[in-house]
Amino acid sequence: MQSTMMNVPLSIHHFLERAGTIFERNTIVSRLPDKSLRRHTYGQWHRRTLQLASALQRAGLNKGDRVATLCWNHHAHLEAYFGIPAAGGVMHTLNLRLSPDEIGWIAADAKDRFLIVDDVLLPLYRQMAHLHAFEKVLVFPFSGAAVPADLADYEIFIAGGDAEGFAPAEHDENDPVAICYTSGTTGRPKGVA
Asked: Structural domain of residue 66, as residue ranges?
């Protein structure tokens, strides 16, 4: 018996579409800082992820540009994991357990253009901001607090994206979709005491 293999390029776009269509009604649960639970469906996540991707492109994100995240593990960070590559960008998770100097050096070395940061991590961001100037800082109101006026509100930003008319950026299966710097294995970055 002869088996037939489908020749389908590997892409995380397939995961995004599959979750948003086949598992549209399945629930995603994440915990907020006040210990309450946030529930929404994969269908809602799919729509918000496409809104993020569309909004990033509208903000000028080009294929291969880096978008850093400084976030805890929650639903908006999941949106970033798929929305940044869908926009053609490369997701760069910054390790929030490193020192501010190390985080700033890494962001500068990676040439991150944008940053998505949880509002509860703004004190950490403020400590490293002098080391790398992001073009746009999107603050996810994780705690529910108001976003500082000098930064962009993530929810308002993605509301400007078009989920319906958006098509994920084409990419080859060998194109980068994420980067991550190792830590504690190669010594300190240059200039960090």
From this structure: 12-179
In the DSSP assignment, the letter for residue 9 is -
Other residues' Cβ atoms within 10 Å of the Cβ of residue 62: 12
Q: Order of strands across the sheet with 152-153? A: 152-153, 136-140, 112-118, 66-70, 90-93, 178-179
This prediction has a pTM of: 0.89
Asked if the structure places residue 191 within a domain, the reply is no
DSSP class of residue 47 equals H
Inside any domain, residue 98: yes
CA distance to 37, 98, 144, per residue, from 127 (Å): 30, 12, 22
Best CA proximity match to 88, nearest among 110, 109, 130, 59: 59
Phi, psi (rounded to 5 degrees) for 191: 80, 0
Structure tokens at 60: 């000028």
At 119-156, the pLDDT tens digits run 999 999 999 999 999 999 999 998 889 999 999 999 99
CA dihedral 163, 107, 62, 120 (to 10 degrees): 20
